[in-house]
Amino acid sequence: MRVLLIGANGYIGRFVADRLLADPAVQLTALGRGDDADVRFDLATGSPGALTRFLDAVHPGVIVNCAGTTRGGARELTRHNTVAVATVCEALRRSGCGARLVQIGCGSEYGPSQPGSSTAEDAVPRPGGPYGVSKLAATELVLGSGLDAVVLRVFSPVGPGTPAGSPLGRLAEAMRRAMQSGDNELKLGGLGVQRDFVDVRDVARAVHAASLSAAQGVINIGSGRAVRLRDAAGVLARVAGYGGALNELDTPPGLHPPHVPHLTHTPHPTTPIRTTIGHPRPDPDHPTTPVAFPYPDGCGSWQQADVRTARDRLGWRPRINLEESLADIWMEAACRI
Questions:
Q1: Of the four, 46, 82, 112, 295, which is 20 to 30 A from 272 by CA?
Q2: Helix (H, G, I), strand (E, B) or coil at 237
Q3: In what helix (H) or strand (E) does residue 246 lie, and over which residues does it extend?
Q4: β-strand 185-189 against 273-276: which pairing, if any?
């Protein structure tokens, strides 16, 4: 089976590539913007016609699209997350290859959900920010294309290679700095949110299973369990061997900054570290601006996936627990000590 993997150098794409290459029945071709791709092509600016000619020449049986971006303004997000998918869909419709499309979506497409609930695939999507909107538009393009296609809505991927700019990546970096400088206190803000963390290697297994299946439509990929960020921080401290205090800053509801800042660190022996994962404590000298969504994915305080469809239609279940994922995040951070 020839598989065309788009976005092989991204966070999820790297693990998908490893998983597919481990299957002796798969012949893998990587398409992307980087020099290390087998074929260089920019979906955001390239023409569907050019991609069609390539598909007709290579004739893949499956196309896996892991490309996209989580950063930037609405125009950039739309260009890389929506226009790019429109290019893939149009090229596939024109091509005679008849390839199956596996599109990587995200839990942000759903937007905020009721605390305590599990979000199933039939939930009405109400994304809470431009990233979720751009990904939902891509999903709608795929579902309305008439192609043999499936969209995997991945919730909060974690594990080795977790981007340093993500909440858990920034937390690991702050803990590394604290241990390196001998500080015995971390003050953390924004840890009350709860997310469904799923290991990126389990996501890659789901992509592999979806490539081989006949399932169509939308399928959630998550752990099926929401975890508070404060609990994840405690686990990370344990696997890191950090013996300092983790003190959470209280944040009154409704007061959040207009963007999510990087973790801040004050490496002074008499000044404790102040770390912000989601939003900082309001400062009377620098008043915050109320916004609707304190966490960067626009999903409010709670998100938990209903993963029964993945079990029933893909034969997939998550295997790697959060502690192992966090241990791998810390391993990478510790290498910088």
A1: 295
A2: helix
A3: strand 245-248
A4: parallel
How many Å apart are CA 242 and CA 175, to the nearest integer? 8
| pLDDT at residue 49 in the model | 97
Helix (H, G, I), strand (E, B) or coil at 63: strand
Crossing angle between the packed helical segments 11-21 and 200-212, to the nearest 10 degrees: 60
314-324 per-position pLDDT tens digit: 999 999 999 99
Type of residue numbered 19: R
CB 119 within 8 A of CB 107: yes
- Spatial contact of 313 and 196, defined as CB atoms under 8 Å apart: no
Do residues 101 and 215 make contact, with C-beta atoms less than 8 angstroms apart?
no
Residue 275: pLDDT band with limits 50, 70, 90 = very low
Question: pTM for this one?
Answer: 0.87
What count of Cα atoms within 13 Å lies in the side-chain half-sphere of residue 208? 23
- Which three-class secondary structure state does DSSP give residue 305? strand
Report DSSP state, residue 124: P
Distance (Å, rounded) from C-alpha 157 to C-alpha 240?
20
**Number of helical (H) and strand (E) elements in the chain, helices listed first:** 10, 13
Burial class of 203 by CB neighbour count within 10 A (0 to 12, 13 to 18, 19+): buried
Locus of tokens 């993500």: 166
* Residue with token string 């192992």: 324
3-state secondary structure 278-298: CCCCCECCECCCCCCCCCCCC
Q: Which residues, other chains included, contact 200 with Cβ-Cβ below 8 Å and sequence gap of 6+?
A: 11, 12, 15, 157, 158, 159, 160, 161, 162
